[in-house]
Every structure is written in C-alpha cells, then in structure tokens.
UniProtKB/TrEMBL annotation:
GO terms for biological process: calcium import into the mitochondrion; positive regulation of mitochondrial calcium ion concentration. It comes from Fulmarus glacialis. This is Mitochondrial calcium uniporter regulator 1. It comes from the Eukaryota. It is found in: Mitochondrion membrane. Belongs to the CCDC90 family. PANTHER family: MITOCHONDRIAL CALCIUM UNIPORTER REGULATOR 1 (PTHR14360:SF11), PROTEIN FMP32, MITOCHONDRIAL (PTHR14360).
Length: 196
C-alpha cells in the first residue's frame, strides 16, 4: 500500500520536538496501522471498476428484460381491447338487427290489423250499421294510434339507450387506451432517466 506521507521525515520531526527515536517510531507505526485500518474499512465499502461494470451489465440486462415484458404486455393489452371492441360491435349489430326486426314486425302487424279493421268496417257499412260501427271504429282507430305511438316511443327510447351505452363503451375504451399510453410513457421516461 502507498502511504501519502514520508514516515522517516515524520520520525525525524518527532525527534526534533523532543521524542526519542523509539517513541517516534512507535507513534509513526501506530499512525501507519490506523491509516491501514481506515483504508481497509474504506475499501470494504468501495467497488472496483470491474465489479461496477458487472453490476451495470446486470442492470442493463434486467432493463432489457423489462422492456421485452412491457412490449409483450402492451401488445396483449391492445389485442384484448381490440377483441373486446369487436365483440361489442357484433353485439350492437345483433341488437340493432333485433330492434329493426321487431319494428318491422310491429309495423306489419299494425298494417294487417288496420287492413282487417278496414275490411270489417266496409262489411258493417254494407249491412246498414254504418253510423254505429263508424263511431266504434274511430274509437278503436284512436286506440290503435295511441298504441302505435307508444310503441314508437318505446323503440326510440331503446335505440337512444343503446346509443348512449355504445358511447359510454367508446369513452371507456378511450380512457383505458390513454391510461395505457401514459403508463408506457412514464415507464419509458423512467428508464430514460435511469440511463442518463
């Protein structure tokens, strides 16, 4: 080990100031032991350049593994989101088709009922019950119009509910996507800051 002072000069200095040669050498040897002990303790806490390079390589390999895991996780999350969006689209298309089928069925039933009522009214007119049956027919026709209006309102409200549900799903997907992007950016910035 290198000492950062000249022991012989220190012994001579101590002798000049009134110490004997033996006392001076004991003091210098005690100082050398103290310095060696301090250096040993300092060296225990220090790392060699080779050890530092090994630790840096290990950290870099861990970062590379984390990067790969993040890329795989990101791809799997986005594919899961896409598949969920496709499922929701298919479900909405099926619901829309069912609603349209129900609308056409209700319209066809109403047209059929109206045609039947018209033919019935014509028969009643031919038998001479024109005035009596006409008032009944108008009442029934008004009831059917009310029922048809209520059905149209129900259909409109269901379609509006489906539209709002679709918009909320879209917003949820956008929020999730934005959260994923910000999380990835945060992790990337963290790694960038570690490298710098």
């Amino acid at each position: 080990r290198k000492l950062f002072f000249d022991t012989h000069v220190l012994v001579c200095l101590l002798e000049e100031n009134g110490f004997t040669t033996q006392q001076s050498e004991v003091i210098v040897s005690a100082l050398v032991k103290i310095m060696n002990t301090n250096l040993d303790m300092i060296y225990k806490d220090m790392v060699t350049k080779v050890q530092q390079e090994i630790a840096l390589q290990q950290v870099m390999s861990h970062i590379g593994g984390v990067k790969k895991d993040m890329i795989i996780l990101e791809k799997s999350e986005f594919s899961a989101l896409r598949s969920e969006n496709e499922k929701i689209k298919l479900e909405l298309q099926q619901i829309k088709k069912q609603v349209m089928d129900e609308i056409t069925k209700v319209r066809a039933d109403n047209k059929l009922n109206l045609n039947l009522e018209k033919s019935r009214v014509k028969e009643l007119v031919s038998f001479g019950y024109f005035l009596l049956e006409t008032s009944k027919h108008f009442k029934m026709h008004a009831q059917q119009d009310r029922a048809l209006t209520q059905t149209d309102r129900k259909i409109d409200t269901e379609v509006a509910d489906l539209k709002t549900m679709l918009e909320s799903h879209k917003l949820d997907n956008i929020k999730y996507l934005a959260g994923s992007v910000f999380t990835c950016l945060t992790v990337a910035l963290g790694f960038y800051r570690l490298w710098i």
